[in-house]
Specification:
Chain lengths: ~300, ~325
């Protein structure tokens, strides 16, 4: 926190109430539903401003914001009677979620465990092995880095129809899409990471008469870990996206992408939102797991010592 | 050892700065070329076993003797083994109408045919479909970027907003947002919005969060000593923003713009999938996969790749120009 941001805080509560209360009353005459929604929004916002300025409870503030959004969503849908086929309220979604946990669980296993996770493991290990394989040839690296960077920026998701055509509708084709998607970001990061150990450290290994493999496993791979984990974190979000979108091109009658596209077709939007909730939780948990592993593995790195 | 020899070699060789730069260019160009040639080579090699089944069926119909003799017996055999047994038919794998894997020259030919060979208003022109997708991408990218920058400014200047919104902005990056694309398309379709706008909304949504996160980091990148200096000048918040924070955020902005435009294009392409759109690169992919037109899929894929690469390159070029004008590029 700096000077410019911690300028004198004037307590603006009292004029706020007056300034906001009058228009709210006017709006209430015109449309009481809008006034109620605005009142809840402003009330929650005022609580958050108070909390943010007086305390340091980041989690609480973020939680209040998230809950407010849900409440406002519920209010908008209920008060304005938005049809279910356009936007179901959070309560309906929660009910649907609780009622169809078995379907959602089978979808989760099909898409996440079989498709995304297996593809993620294959793709990431292939990328790291490839990085080690080209490690001894600076010439190949000089060529591979720009090509890999180029490929990482491409809409690789477009290979999904081709891979579904080759590997069939089962989870294997989803895993193949995930392999192609995660390969290049991890490869680029791993190649860069293997250069992270500095010359002095490598010279030290040389004075120990360390072999190439000893140098690789005891110095350069550990030193590359922050970079590799950066790639792994990017890949963790790509993996789930790849597995879900690949199912839009053909899948057995199970899977998150299948559920989303079929339920959209049947206008069962509560089921769609329930599937999306699963995808969101799975995506965050996957990312969190990778980030936690990173913390344990690269505990020595300045960014983790904080 | 190598350091020593370099320090001795440089004065005696007396290469000019330009020559050194040219040599570096040549070397990296050669390296990239080698890798690309390797990839194309692997592709050609893969074409043979992938397409050998249909090639052999055609040859059998033409009366050639093949090992094993019937298509039914060959169906469950691996492509590599079949290829080695009937190697004289390998040539037929490269120019099929509907190959499992088209060979590179077929894709290039199709790309050439559908870009240069057709009028750009024709429904069969890839330029036409590319423009449909590109317009949605650019519209969404523009909306997402402007909204992202505005939110980032709010987050940097308002503590309550920072603590409320920022955790969700970061968390949302780990969520497969693309999964809601079909729903957005169908819902907007049901309330009468079609074509450009729904796709652009998905693009905007995808490019929004990278820009927010990058811009917040950028606007916070000035050091305390720099902010203190502004304070000693008795600079107002506005002045600190326009003269210090905004210029300092530029490298961060461009980096996230590159991520954002790539995400936008993916959003626009995926946005074309669920409603069975008939125009756009995504529609070409979908139609190709319905009718088994593999060459069309591959050419749409390469069209998308060329589009993505050139947009990232354009942003990179603007970045270089801007940063060197601002004196931030060494």
């Amino acid at each position: 926190m700096s000077f410019a941001e911690t300028t004198v805080r004037v307590d603006k509560r009292v004029p706020w109430l007056a300034v906001l209360g009058v228009p709210l009353a006017i709006i209430a005459f015109w449309d009481w539903r809008l006034a109620a929604i605005l009142a809840v929004w402003l009330g929650a916002w005022a609580v958050n401003v108070q909390l943010a300025n007086r305390s340091n409870q980041r989690l609480l503030v973020a939680a209040i914001f998230g809950i407010t959004i849900l409440v406002l969503w519920e209010m908008v849908v209920q008060l304005y009677e938005v049809p279910l086929v356009i936007l179901p309220p959070p309560s309906e979604i929660a009910v649907k979620f609780a009622a169809s946990t078995d379907i959602l669980w089978r979808d989760f296993v099909q898409t996440f465990v079989k498709g995304a996770l297996s593809g993620y493991i294959i793709g990431c290990s292939a990328a790291v092995l490839m990085a080690i394989a080209v490690d001894r040839s600076p010439f190949l690296q000089a060529g591979l880095l720009p090509v890999g960077n180029f490929m990482a920026a491409l809409p690789i998701i477009g290979t999904a129809p081709i891979l579904v055509m080759w590997f069939g509708f089962g989870w294997q084709s989803k895993a193949a899409v995930v392999v192609v998607m995660v390969f290049f970001p991890v490869l680029v990061n791993a190649v860069q990471g293997l250069h992270a150990a500095d010359k002095m450290q490598r010279d030290l290994m040389h004075t120990y008469a360390a072999s190439y493999w000893q140098g690789l496993f005891k110095l350069r791979l550990p030193a590359a870990m922050p970079f590799i984990f950066n790639g792994l974190k990017i890949a963790s979000t790509l993996a789930l996206i790849g597995a879900i979108v690949a199912e839009f091109f053909g899948s057995p009658t199970v899977g998150m992408g299948f559920r989303i596209s079929v339920s959209v077709g049947q206008l069962q939007l509560d089921m769609v939102w329930a599937s999306i909730t699963v995808a969101a939780v799975a995506g965050s948990a996957f990312y969190g797991a990778v980030a936690y592993t990173e913390k344990r593995v690269t505990f020595w790195h300045p960014s983790q010592r904080g | 050892m190598s350091d020593l020899s370099a320090s001795v070699a440089v004065p005696s060789m007396r290469r000019s700065h330009l020559q050194v730069k040219l040599l570096e260019w040549l070397r990296s160009g050669l390296a990239i070329l080698t890798v690309v040639i390797c990839l194309v080579g692997v592709w050609y090699l893969a074409v043979m076993p992938m397409n050998i089944h249909t090639a052999l069926t055609d040859a059998e119909r033409a009366g050639a003797v093949i090992q094993p003799e019937t298509a039914a017996a060959r169906r469950d055999l691996g492509g590599v083994g079949l290829l080695l047994n009937n190697f004289d038919h390998a040539g037929a794998t490269f120019n099929q109408d509907r190959p499992r894997l088209p060979s590179p020259h077929q894709v290039v030919e199709e790309l050439w045919d559908t870009t240069v060979g057709k009028r750009i208003t024709s429904k069969r022109s890839l330029v036409y479909h590319g423009w449909i997708t590109l317009s949605a991408t650019l519209l969404g990218f523009g909306i997402g970027t402007v909204a992202g920058i505005l939110l980032a400014i709010g987050i940097v200047h308002n503590r309550a907003m920072d603590m409320s919104v920022m955790p969700w902005a970061i968390a949302s990056q780990t969520i497969p947002i693309l999964a809601i694309a079909p729903m957005i398309i169908v819902v907007l379709n049901s309330i009468g919005m079609q074509g450009l706008v729904p796709k652009a909304m998905i693009s905007a949504y995808l490019s929004f969060f990278p820009v927010v996160v990058g811009m917040v980091a950028g606007l916070r990148s000035p050091e305390v000593s720099q902010l203190d200096l502004m304070h000693t000048y008795s600079a107002s918040r506005n002045q600190v923003f326009w003269r210090l924070r905004l210029p300092a955020s530029m490298p961060f902005l461009f980096t996230s713009l590159k991520v954002g435009i790539a995400a936008s294009l993916i959003g626009a392409i995926v946005g074309e999938l669920p409603t069975g759109a008939v125009e756009g690169l995504g529609a070409r992919l979908l139609a190709g996969s319905y009718y088994g037109q593999t060459i069309q899929i591959w050419s749409a894929l390469f069209g998308a790749a060329i589009l993505a690469a050139s947009m990232v390159a354009i942003i990179g070029w603007i970045q270089k120009l801007t940063l060197s004008r601002m004196g931030m590029l060494r």
